[in-house]
Amino acid sequence: MSNRYGSSFDDEPVIGAPQAADEPIIGAGSVPPAFQAYDPAGHGAYTEPEAYPEEEYYWDEEDYFGGEPPARQPMFYVFLFLAAVVGGILVFLVFTLITGDGGNGGGAATEFAVQIDSPVRDQRLEINRPHEVTVQASATQPIRRVELFVGDRVVDAVDITDTPPDNRYRVTLRFTIADKGTYDIFVRVFAESGASKDSAKVRIVAIEPVGERPQAIQGRVVADATVRGGPGDAFPETGSLRAGSQVTITGRTRDLAWLLVQPPAGTQGWVRRAAIEPLDTLDLVPVRDVTPTPLPTATPTAEASPTATVSPSPSPAANMPDFVPTNAVLSSGGSILRVTVSNAGNNPYSGPLVVAVSGDVPQQELAVNVNLAANGGSTVIEFPLSPPVTQGGKRAVVTVDPENIVREQREDNNRATFVLQPPVEAPSLVITAANVTAATIEVTLRNDGGPLPVSTVVVQVQLGGQITSNSVSIALATGQSSPVIAVARPAGSGQATVTVYVGNQPMASTTVQLP
Q1: Is residue 367 part of a domain?
Q2: 436 lies in the same domain as 509
Q3: Residue 485 included in any domain
Q4: Is residue 510 domain-resident?
Q5: How far is CA 473 from CA 187, 392, 414, 416, in A?
Q6: Are residues 228 and 192 part of one domain?
Q7: Domain range for residue 237?
Q8: Same structural domain for residues 263 and 202?
C-alpha cells in the first residue's frame, strides 16, 4: 500500500512484500493501527489493547481516510416535509385574513350598488296618499331583502328569493306620510351573508293637496318693501309693507326671488324674497308662474323714464353676484349692530365689500373682505354703536356697496330698512367638532352667545351635488355644548362642507375631509 496520506510510519506493511516476524499480517484479523496504542517510548512498537470479535468488526479504508460521509437518516427528510406543510398552512391563513374572508363567507368584502330612481330630490308629494319608491340594486352576493326608511323608521320591506339573470334587482316599495314637512328617505339592502348597504338619502316635501287653493305659510317683514302686481320691478306698485309686520305667503317664483304675500290689511301682491323672513319652509309654497303684464302704453313715457332709470331689466345679467342686506339685530346690550349680507346672485364673490349703516344708529361705513357663495351665501358684519341702542323701535338703514363699485345682477336691492328689537344677546353657535366615521359625520356645537331657546337645529353636509342633513330640537344656554348630532355621510370622498342652520338662518360652518 502506498503512503498516499502522508503517514509518518515507515513500517507500513506493503502488500506483496515479505513480512517481518513481528509485522501484522494483512487479512489475518489483526487490529488496524488506528485502534492500537502508540508506544510513548518512541520505539514504534504497538500493543494490542484488546481483541475485537472478528464477526463484529468491519473495516473500510475509505471511511477511515476521509471517504464519502454516511447517508442521512430518513427522519431528517420527514422533518423537512412536515416543516413545508406547516409553512404552507400559515401562508394560507395569513392570505385568508388579508383578503377579508375570515371564515364568514366573504360578507365583509361584499360590494353593492344601490340607488333610488323615484321619487327625485325635492319632489312634492301629497300627504295621506300612497306613493311608490323604485329602487335598483346589484351586489357581488345575492340580495335577499330591501327595506325602505322614512327618516329613521322602516315603513316597507320586500324579501327576495330569486336572483335576476343580469344581477340587477328592481324593487318597488310603498309609503304614506301623514304630516306635511320635509323628509329624507333611503333604502337599505341586505345580502345573503347579512352584509348591508344604504342608498343615498333623497329629500322629499310632503304637502297638503293643493287643488285650487294655495298652500300658505306665515312670514315676517324684515325690511320696508314695495308690493307689486307681479314678480318683477317692471310691474306696477300696489302697496307697501313696513318692517315688523306679519304676512301670509301663498306663492313663490321658481327661483325664489319673489314671494306672493297677503298682508293683514290690503291686497295680495308680490314682494322681494329678501324683505320677508319665512316662518316655515318655502318648499311648502306652490310655484306661481305669472305671465308678465306689459306696462300701460297710454301713460306718457316721460313719467315712466324715472322708473326705467332706477329699475334694471327684470331679467338679471348672468354670472354676477347680487348683494342684499337680509337682517340687522342688536347684541352685546345694544353696543353692537350685527348686519347680515347675502349673495342672491348665481355667481360667488370673494373680495372687498363696503357696507354702510344709518338711520337711528350712528352713520358709519365698514370695508370688509368677504367670501360669499352663490345663491344664498351670507356673512355677518358687526358695527360698534356708541352710545348703545337700548330701546326697541329704532330703525337701521343698511346699504351694501353704496358706490356701486362691484358689478351686480341688480343694483336696486342693495338697501333695506330694519326695525330693531330691544337688545337681546343672540345665540352664537360654533362647531367644536366634526368627526368623520365610516357611515356618519358626528357634529358637536357650542353656544357662545345668548341663550338659545328650544329650536330646530339643522346640520347639513354637502359633498358636490349630494346633501345629507339631520334636524334636532335642542335648547342651549350660554357656554353649553350640544349632544353629538350624527349626519349620514354622503357617498364619495373629498372636501365636504358642514353648515348649521337655526330656522333658515346659517349660524356656523366648517369643512371636513372625507377619505
Answers
A1: yes
A2: yes
A3: yes
A4: yes
A5: 25, 29, 34, 32
A6: no
A7: 217-291
A8: no
CATH code of the domain containing 330: 2.60.40.10
Residues 345 and 434 in one domain: no
3-class SS string, 196-233: EEECCCEEEEEECCCCCCCCCEEEEECCCEEEECCCCC
Higher-confidence position of 289 and 409: 409
Report d(CA 52, CA 27) in Å as an integer. 14
Instruction: Match 346659517 to its residue by C-alpha cell.
Output: 506
Residue 43: C-alpha distances to residues 22, 31, 38 (Å): 13, 19, 9
Q: Examine the domain organization and report whether 93 and 139 are in the same domain.
A: no
For residue range 349-405, list pLDDT tens digits in order.
888 888 999 988 888 988 888 888 888 788 889 898 888 888 878 889 999 988 888
Instruction: Give all strands of the β-sheet with 415-419 in edge-to-edge order.
Output: 364-372, 349-359, 395-400, 415-419
Pairs from 148-156 (Cβ < 8 Å, separation ≥ 24): 148/173, 148/174, 148/175, 148/185, 148/187, 149/185, 149/186, 149/187, 149/188, 150/175, 150/177, 150/183, 150/184, 150/185, 151/183, 151/184
Please give the DSSP secondary-structure letter assigned to residue 68: P
CA–CA separation, 157 vs 173, rounded Å? 7
Residue among 444, 409, 412 nearest 429 (CA): 444
What pairing do the DSSP bridges indicate for beta strands 237-241 and 269-272? unpaired
Tell me the pLDDT tens digit for each residue of 392-439. Answer: 788 899 999 888 888 888 878 888 888 888 766 678 899 999 999 999
pTM above 0.90, yes or no: no
Report whether 184 contacts 468 (CB < 8 A). yes
Residue 124: which of 172, 170, 177 has the closest Cα? 177
Instruction: Tell me, yes or no, whether 140 and 228 share the same domain.
Output: no
Tell me: do 149 and 177 sit in the same domain.
yes
Per the structure, how many domains does the chain have? 5
CB burial class (10 A; 0-12, 13-18, 19+) of residue 201? buried
**Strand-pair category, 153-159 with 225-228:** unpaired
Q: How large is the greatest C-alpha to C-alpha distance in the chain, in angstroms?
A: 164
Are 269 and 344 in the same domain?
no
At 95, list the grid cell: 392570505
Domain boundary, last residue among 100, 135, 167? 100
- 299 within some domain: no
- Which residues have a Cβ under 8 Å from the Cβ of 150 and sit 6 or more positions away? 175, 177, 183, 184, 185
Picking from 182, 207, 232, the residue at the C-terminal end of a domain is 207
Helices (H), 463-515: none
- The grid coordinates of residue 286 equal 306652490
